[in-house]
Amino acid sequence: MEGGAILEGLARRDPAALARAISLVENRREGFEQVLARALVPRAAGATAGRRTGLTGPPGAGKSTLTERLIRHYRAHGESVGVIAVDPTSAFTGGALLGDRIRMESSEVDSGVFIRSMATRGSHGGLAVTTEEVAQLLEAFGFAQVLIETVGVGQTELDIAGAADTTVVVLVPESGDAIQTLKAGVMEIADIYVLNKSDRPGADKLRHEIEIMVSMRRGSRAGAWEPPVIKTVATTGEGIGELTGALEGHRAYLETSGMLVARRKRRVEALTRAVLTRALERWVWEAARADEIIAERLDDVLEGRQSPYELAQAVIEQVKSGALE
Amino acid sequence: MEGGAILEGLARRDPAALARAISLVENRREGFEQVLARALVPRAAGATAGRRTGLTGPPGAGKSTLTERLIRHYRAHGESVGVIAVDPTSAFTGGALLGDRIRMESSEVDSGVFIRSMATRGSHGGLAVTTEEVAQLLEAFGFAQVLIETVGVGQTELDIAGAADTTVVVLVPESGDAIQTLKAGVMEIADIYVLNKSDRPGADKLRHEIEIMVSMRRGSRAGAWEPPVIKTVATTGEGIGELTGALEGHRAYLETSGMLVARRKRRVEALTRAVLTRALERWVWEAARADEIIAERLDDVLEGRQSPYELAQAVIEQVKSGALE
């Protein structure tokens, strides 16, 4: 199925076309930007119709089960749900988290639910951009709720979380390292904390610790949203109502404070910047024959006759002198 | 202190000059590439004199204490040690992991030890490159051992680990999520597993699970290194001798198998590629006045009159038509 057929399929809301569009975007295959350009416009890129919720946290915190609970909740309220699950699985361990996923896949018979896993392997800095693009595709397709689930709490995950309007950080009592995790940049992105598996020992202690950190932080920003700490047991559904209530509450806060528009605007600006960088880089890299040059001169670098910095400078001089077409 | 003074300081092995060189590189300040080019050449970029060990694992696993133990071990054997500690701390939580660090800082009175923390905030995809550059600086300065400590097990951390010859993955018994962590791409980079805090319950069970995963993997690659699982209690020093023995063993394996040279070669190629990309990108971004163009046209993108992809294409056409200088 090539670009034209995908666009046609998207227009008649064919889930198979959506799946193919995502593959095209994820793998950056020839023509993906044209498909995106046509699939996403005339819908304004800054539109705020869809609701995007990010769920992030350490492996084993129960994010998939929580996601499944949210899907059921929204479906019960007649809302369609698109899910992006960003898996750090690799070629070797491919499908490692599939076990977690399987229970969720059962939701797929419902046409109001679309679940898509994306691999992080090899995508490095580009993953945040791809996630934003896929989220836009899901919104353009018409999903009222878009859930973005990421495993881990590293820089990559924080970047991905940036694609959501509301970010839920999921922790568990036995994360003895939870407070360190919070310090590691997560506090800045958490709009809501979920303390899952809260029937286990240590839940109240951890909740208390998080609340102290939240209140310390609030001190420095008057009038700001105060992230609630919600105890859940995703396997039984306990606390899910409180979570969806908090999601509603944060959405209302974003809307009335004007932050929803501001967040979306910042996101579109970042995407535009990334798309332009990517396009420039691809063009210059090809036009400068950079691969050939590196292959030719790598021995000089390895043996210390030239540094990578001198090599780069030489290529740029060559480009400037008009060798590009 | 500008470039010339830094180079002069490096030549007479002044630690203050090294600290300033690292700051220059870390912040990508004007002239950092010239300093690197001159500080690292004529020393061959592919040289394999220094020994680089990476330590990675979840927060709270005791990596800093292990690092401190390794420093003591190498110092007792007369080897100098340079440490790069990559902290995911942010502006807000700046210095959050300092508590961990403080015990280590006491080593700094010894001129054979140099410890440097690097922030990950905002550096995104560039962090692996910066880590490689700083590691080269430490080697060029003359440190026999270079330790690279990263907090977390996300894609960023895996990328950073690529700067080491030998990667140690540190886990603790209470990581109930340890096996999921292993599946999440870590198995491919682990040369040695350390099960720290192994006096706690669950250590033998986890060790057994890791060994099963290692042996399953080995099946697919005959003759490959089989990562050992070493139990340590870093706070008491238990198991450190076994760890340093395993580090020696892995080094010998890398040397006899030819993999040491292959790994370093791949690393130099990646660095060269990244340096060239960065230089091309910076030049084109400036020459194309990309910031101005985005500022001018962002409203069109936000309101859906133009997609980021069309905007990028228009800029490239403009560049191609000779507007660059």
Overview features:
homodimer; 325 residues; alpha/beta; Rossmann fold; 3 domains; 7-stranded parallel sheet; 54% helix
CATH architecture of the largest domain in chain A: 3-Layer(aba) Sandwich
The CATH topology of the largest domain in chain A corresponds to Rossmann fold
In DSSP terms (H or I, runs of 4 or more residues), the helix count of chain A works out at 13
Assign an overall shape of chain A. globular
Helicity range of chain A: 40-55%
Strand content of chain A: 5-15%
Mean pLDDT of chain A: 80
Radius of gyration of chain A: 22 Å
What is the ordering of alpha helices and beta strands of chain A?
Answer: HHHEHEHEHEHEHEHEHHHH
Could you tell me which chain pair has the largest interface and how many residues each side has? Answer: A-B, 88 and 88 residues
If strands are numbered along the chain, what order do they take across the biggest sheet of chain A? 3-2-4-1-5-6-7
Number of strands of chain A: 7
Low-confidence stretches of chain A: 89-105
Terminal Cα separation of chain A, in Å?
A: 32 Å
Number of domains of chain A: 3
Structural class of chain A: alpha/beta
